[in-house]
Structure formats: C-alpha cells, structure tokens
Amino acid sequence: MPAGQDAANADGPTVDGRSPERMRPREGGQPATMSSSMPSAQADVLVALEPRPEAARTARRALDRHGIPEDIAHTVSLLATEVIANAVRHAGLRPSERIVFFAHVEDDYARIEVADTGAGFDPDAAEFGFGLRLLDKLASAWGVDRSRGCRVWFEVDRRSHRFRRSPGARG
User: Fold this and answer.
1) For the chain, N or C: smaller number of CB within 10 Å?
2) Domain boundaries, the chain
3) CATH classification (class only), 39-160
4) For residues 41 and 112, what is the distance between their CA atoms, to the nearest angstrom?
C-alpha cells in the first residue's frame, strides 16, 4: 500500500501485515467492527504514514475526508498533529517503517491512536514538552501504551462538558 494511503476500506493487510480489522480498538476483548447499519455520523479512519514532516498533514486530510465534526475538529487536528510530530521526531524510525494513525469519530467524540515501533516514553518520568502539555490540557483522556512499540492515544469528548464555556466567558 502506498505510504499515506487511507486504509480504512482496504481488503488486504497493512504495511505491518495486520489487517485493518485487527488494528481497530478492542472493547471487552472483542474487535470493534464497522457495520452497514452504522450511522453516518460515525467514521473510522486508518492511515499508514511515512515518518516525515508531512505525516500530520496527511492524517488531517484523511480526517477531513471522513467528516470530522466542526465542534471538535480544531482540537482533534491540533492534538493529532502534536502526537504525530512527536512520533516523527522521536521514534527513530527508518524511512521504510510507518506510523499508524487510527481515528474513531462520532458527532461529539473522537478517539485518536498514533502507533510506531519506537521505544516510546514513560509519561510519568518524561519532561512534558509543549505538545504533551497541550494534550494534557485539551484531551478528555490520554495515555501511552509501550507493550508493542509505542502507542499514544487521546480522546476528545464534548459530552464530558470539558469544552463548555464558563458562565462569564465572552465569545
């Protein structure tokens, strides 16, 4: 599959040999699946990215093609850009390796996962740079999984009221 190609509807394996179905988040040990009865307000996006500075732009374009809701679009795009940039900068990937970008998007919720084969970092021991500070302030939840490479995930959830203006705020 060419680098940066949207793999959300691919029939064959991705660059690391796993099918897109196996790369989707799992709940209760079962793979999440897309069905034809899924409302149009939901979308799953899966993209294999080259470890280059253009990777974040490729992921943002894939999100735009699948219709990310306006209420969360800016926050999701900003945080995805930061997490992908960290993978490009710090994972130490060879040009033949890929960063895997996955997004599950609903009307007022998005879960983003960015995975690479790098060693990753311990968020409790790491000194937070500007990107991780943004992630910590703007995401409803986030985390790092280093069990197989490094996978940074975050959620933006308007339903949590994290994005509700305070009564005295002016717009």
Assistant:
1) C
2) 39-160
3) alpha beta
4) 16
